[in-house]
Protein: TetR/AcrR family transcriptional regulator
Amino acid sequence: MDPRIARSRRAIIDAATTLFLNQGYPATTMDDIAEVAGVSKRTVYNNFPDKEGLFREVVLAVTSFVDEFINEAVRELADAAEVELSLKDLAARLASSVIGDGVVRLRRLIIGEAHRFPDLAADYYRRAPGRVIATLAIEFGELTQQGRLHTPDPELAAEQFAYLTIGAPLDRALFHSHDVGTDSDTLVATAIAGVTTFLAAYGPEARGRRHT
Structure:
């Protein structure tokens, strides 16, 4: 792609992201996006034929970061020397990634427009939180085979891990317009406490307790 075209496209996506997050989908026009991006309206339409397509691009662009997170944090679990330490590190990174202001605002936007774009909302879930949970389930299954966890239902265990570590802080962040228990120290402490609870149920010693 021509570098000038790539720069214009990036500027359009950045402008659209800012406007959609700040004023919502219905109130944002292609004229607004062109003005903020510093390009002509024709340039916007040359890259994105309609506002719906641009909105989809904005929403799904963030899912590219999921690949990096999964490759760096989740897929290392089965090879970890210390499962507990690796789970705590993963939980802290998950909390920092998901409960950042940009992701929370994007999730609010997607939820608010789910009635208008149900397929897009479902696609976002599949590519982002759903994919993280699915990958966690695979890793938990492998750790169970190694005898380092005991997860009879790895997918359920993955869902419970996610809620124990970030569920409550994420709910608070979604429903408050200002920080409420979402400072970094509180997030990390909550995530680590969630891992402790998770291991009490799914640690290797849980296998014996369930048969007593």
